[in-house]
Design goal:
The complex is a heterodimer of chains A (386) and B (473).
Chain A (H helix, E strand, L loop, with lengths): L3 H9 L11 H6 L15 H25 L10 H9 L6 E4 L3 H4 L3 H8 L4 E2 L8 H9 L6 E5 L2 H4 L6 H15 L2 H16 L10 H6 L20 E3 L5 E3 L1 H4 L4 H14 L10 H28 L3 E6 L4 H10 L6 H8 L3 E3 L4 H4 L11 H18 L3
Parallel strand pairs in A: 1-2, 1-3, 3-6, 6-7
Antiparallel strand pairs in A: 4-5
Chain B lengths: L5 H16 L3 H17 L3 H23 L3 H38 L17 H17 L8 H9 L12 H4 L11 H35 L6 H32 L17 H5 L4 H12 L9 H19 L3 H24 L8 H23 L3 H11 L12 H20 L5 H7 L2 H18 L12
Helix pairs in contact in B: 1-2, 2-3, 2-6, 3-4, 3-5, 3-6, 4-5, 8-9, 8-16, 8-18, 9-14, 9-15, 9-16, 11-12, 12-13, 13-14, 14-15
Classes of the chains: A alpha/beta (386), B mainly alpha (473).
Chain lengths: 386, 473
């Protein structure tokens, strides 16, 4: 009797796939050799290795000393794994800070703990939109705590696909997909980053050093603006503090950062490949969508007994002028509170919060952030009905 | 666990120290099995169970094939192994793709069907370890390998951590013989392994991730039309990025295996110096191309059939090779393009091979340049996530967007140009040689300087633990 496979082959005219004995040539070329050994270059490996280790250790130490000499100090890198570790610490009743870097630099966790009776968890991020985090907390059925959300309209209303949204989404995605290996790497990175000054991924890595080379670009090239240099430190709770070199009034670093904020906060020109009206309509639609989505997320959290308060943190100088012009309060902040029904604290509405100066126009110094938080606490307690 | 992560550094130091401090060969092999499963489980622990179950099944099926005297029974056991492995791969990797295409097909005949979206998480490296495991039963069937009696040895052959998740695809027949006798600790071999790991990490962290990936990502991620210069720069950046990313992983794997006394074959042999596409595939992802050649192309009849059939065989192999890379039609087009390139090359060989001009230097240089350009064009389909992006990229490359945007900075373009020129120069100069010969010929100070420079660049770059591109396959 013919086998099922033979009949099947014959009917479908299948090739002789896998069903014939290999030829001798195949056995030689396709088959495995009994022994295979890689050649090892016959050189003095011990001596070379000792020299390499000495050179690398010396170069690394030299680089570390140089970085310290020009003002860098050890601090943790703010990455998605560190954020994820804090996100994991969120319990159903936690107080959580979300949003952009103003919610990150301008609040002091110790003062908040004293004033609110519970240590908040810092989930705000530099240049990151708070909406993806808010939406994730809304999806978390167990969460019914309190949210303090920093709002910088440029960032909070950033459309999908823009860097602020991607930053927030990346962090949330990592929280849901972090592998044991990634978690272990973050724990191993703590002692290294806390003691080595040159470990700064967005400042002293090769890529960032190359970006500092002043090479002019082609006229009309749509090159993204530079990000500000290192001006803060971060601890394991993700409490960010401005460094002294930036906090000094009129410091060179603060002035340099001021000039970086302006192009960074200036909306990019409409793309050339979409008609202007169509683009404006699309952006308007995206912003409208963000209002609606935010309201829906808040509704879910409230339905479970959770609370939220929006906070507009201090900003000053040319950046304040730019924000007031491009994202006026009447078109961003006011409709946000109206549509969501959530309470809000706009720093300039309260004299005790309005007198602070931001050295680099966008954030408070470490010292001021403590005082600002002390004064903010009563407002937070009232807004969160605590 | 990624090679470019702190976790791996600590893991590797512990494993190597324990490995060489244990005297018993059996205990060393046990240690490697445990280490390999920890390495794999560090991504997603439950998938380690999946890896074990497919390995155990193939071990058992291999024994059945070996034991069966009857040719028919051997075939049945082989078909069982092939079906088991490919169905596992099919479910995890192609499940949603097949459903989507089924839905599309039904829609074309007027049936509206909304398939459920299967929330399938792709086990890392499934395409690689499936082939590791499958090579075992195929070789036993082919009569070129005897079934091993040790399940532990077979588990180690499939899951050996340096090559487990992104290749090279090490055939059981290449690895199992190395488990028979204990490998002695040779200082030169160990340190050469460490040097290769440094080279691999340098390729990945510095060249691929730092100097090239930014340009490639920006160009392929841009939603509008681009001018020709930026389009080509993005594609050339990706051509370099994917080489350094994948070759870097393979070099790390070879180096890590050497430090443990194991020898893995080359997976890349300076592919961008290839003259012609068959030469390219003898140099690019060699472990996959030889796998497809031995287990698919030759059984299909190879080139020992009529010319049309031989050409069809090439296209079939490259079609499946494309699909192996990912569950998307863009990968299929990439494979088919390479299949067509191979067919065109074969026709050219038939027509021009014995012409005097066909083998002179200028023709070879032109053919090499044409190969590189055609490979770059095919990379567009490999990198683009859909056909809209691919056609926009090709439009830009061939000057359709004269009023397109320029998005790369001068620095980015210089980086891409310098790295590409350097890469192609190295590939051309070592085309008929290998890295071991090159290192042997270099003066000692140059080897020291190069090694130290690569290590310093890795430290300076502070790798951000970006996943290797081939992990997704």
């Amino acid at each position: 009797m013919r086998s099922f496979i033979s009949n099947f082959k014959q009917r479908l005219r299948l090739p002789r796939l896998f069903f014939r004995k290999p030829t001798r040539a195949e056995q030689i070329h396709g088959g495995p050799p009994l022994e295979f050994e890689r050649p090892i270059p016959p050189i003095q490996w011990r001596g070379i290795t000792v020299l390499v280790v000495l050179v690398v250790v010396a170069a690394t130490m030299g680089w570390e000393l140089y970085c310290r000499a020009i003002g860098y100090g050890p601090t943790l890198d703010d990455n998605a794994d560190l954020w994820t570790l804090r996100r994991r610490a969120v319990t159903p009743e936690s107080i959580v800070i979300i949003g952009d870097s103003r919610g990150w630099y301008d609040v002091d966790l110790d003062e908040l703990q004293k004033g609110l009776g519970k240590r908040p968890i810092q989930l705000a991020m530099g240049g990151g939109c708070g909406y993806p985090v808010l939406a994730d907390l809304a999806k978390d059925e167990s969460f019914h705590g309190a949210i303090i959300c920093s709002v910088v309209p440029h960032i909070f209303f950033a459309p999908p696909g823009t860097p602020p949204m991607e930053r927030g989404e990346k962090a949330v995605k990592r929280f849901h997909s972090q592998t044991p290996a990634q978690r272990a790497s973050q724990y191993l990175a703590f002692p290294l980053e806390e003691h080595v000054a040159f470990l700064k991924q967005e400042e002293l890595a090769l890529d960032d050093l190359l970006k500092r080379i002043p090479i002019p670009n082609r006229p009309g090239a749509l090159v993204p603006p530079r990000l500000p240099p290192y001006f803060g430190t971060l601890d394991r709770e993700r409490r960010a503090r401005m460094i002294e070199a930036c906090a000094r009034p009129g410091s060179e670093l603060a002035q340099r950062i001021q000039q970086i904020w302006i192009p960074l906060f200036t909306p990019p020109p409409p793309p050339t490949y979409v008609p202007k009206e169509q683009f404006i309509a699309k952006i308007g639609e995206a912003i409208g969508g963000r209002f609606r989505d935010t309201a829906a997320a808040i509704e879910k959290i409230r339905a479970r007994g959770g609370k939220i308060v929006f906070v507009r943190f201090p900003h000053s100088g040319g950046l304040k002028e730019l924000e007031d012009r491009d994202t006026p309060r009447a078109k961003t902040w006011d409709p946000l509170l109206k549509m969501t029904g959530a309470p809000g604290i706009y720093y300039s509405d309260f004299s005790e919060l309005a007198g602070f100066n931001c050295p680099e126009w966008s954030h408070l110094s470490a010292g001021d952030s403590v005082e600002f938080t002390k004064r903010l606490v009563p407002h937070l307690r009232a807004a969160l009905k605590m | 666990m990624l090679f470019n992560s702190l976790t791996f550094v600590v893991f590797f130091v512990i494993v190597v120290t324990l490995y060489w401090s244990i005297g018993s060969w059996t205990a060393r092999k046990n240690l490697l099995v445990v280490a390999s499963y920890i390495f794999y489980g560090a991504w997603n622990p439950p998938f380690a169970a999946l890896l074990f179950s497919t390995t155990a099944m193939d071990f058992w099926l291999g024994r059945q094939i070996g034991k069966a005297k009857d040719r028919h029974k051997r075939r049945v056991w082989l078909v069982a192994s092939v079906c088991m492995n490919l169905s596992m791969l099919g479910f995890f990797k192609y499940g949603n793709f097949l459903l989507q295409n089924f839905q599309w097909l039904l829609a074309h005949i007027g049936i509206i069907y909304q398939p459920p979206h299967l929330d399938i998480l792709l086990p890392v490296g499934i395409s690689f370890y499936t082939f590791h495991s499958l090579s075992y039963t195929l070789d036993i069937y082919r009569g070129v390998l005897q079934p091993t009696r040790s399940l532990r040895d077979f588990i180690l052959a499939v899951s050996f951590f340096p090559q487990l998740v992104a290749g090279p695809i090490v055939r059981a027949g290449d690895f199992l013989p190395q488990l028979v006798r204990p490998q002695p600790l040779r200082t030169g071999q160990f340190l050469w392994g460490v040097a290769l790991m440094t080279l691999g990490l340098f390729e990945k962290i510095v060249l691929a991730d730092t100097l090239l990936s930014g340009s490639a990502d920006r160009v392929f991620g841009y939603a509008g039309p681009l001018v020709a210069l930026d389009s080509w720069a993005g594609v050339i950046a990706f051509a370099g990025q994917i080489f350094f990313d994948f070759a870097g992983y393979s070099t790390c794997a070879i180096g890590a295996a050497l430090t443990l006394g194991f020898h893995l074959k080359d997976n890349f042999r300076f592919p961008y110096a290839a003259i012609g596409f068959s030469d390219f595939w003898r140099r690019w992802h060699i472990s996959l191309s030889t796998f497809l050649r031995d287990y698919l192309y030759i059984p299909l009849g190879g080139n020992q059939v009529r010319p049309f059939r031989a050409a069809l065989n090439l296209v079939i192999v490259m079609f499946l090779g494309g699909l192996w890379h990912g569950a998307a039609w863009t990968f299929v087009v990439w494979g088919l393009l390479h299949g067509s390139y191979l067919v065109i090359e074969r026709i050219c060989r038939i027509l021009f091979e014995d012409k005097a001009w066909a083998n002179n230097l200028s023709t070879r240089i032109l053919a090499g340049a044409a190969t590189y350009a055609a490979v770059c064009i095919a990379w567009v389909y490999f990198r683009a996530s859909d056909f809209t992006i691919a056609s926009r990229m090709l439009g830009g490359m061939f000057g359709q967007h004269t009023h397109g945007d320029a998005i790369l900075s001068t620095r980015e373009m210089l980086q891409v140009a310098l790295v590409t020129i350097g890469m192609i120069s190295v590939h051309c100069s070592l085309r008929d040689s290998n890295i071991e010969t090159a290192v042997t010929r270099l003066p000692r100070w140059a080897v020291t300087a190069a090694w130290a420079l690569m290590a310093c660049a890795i430290i300076l770059t502070q790798g951000t633990s970006n996943a290797f591109i081939y992990f997704q396959f």
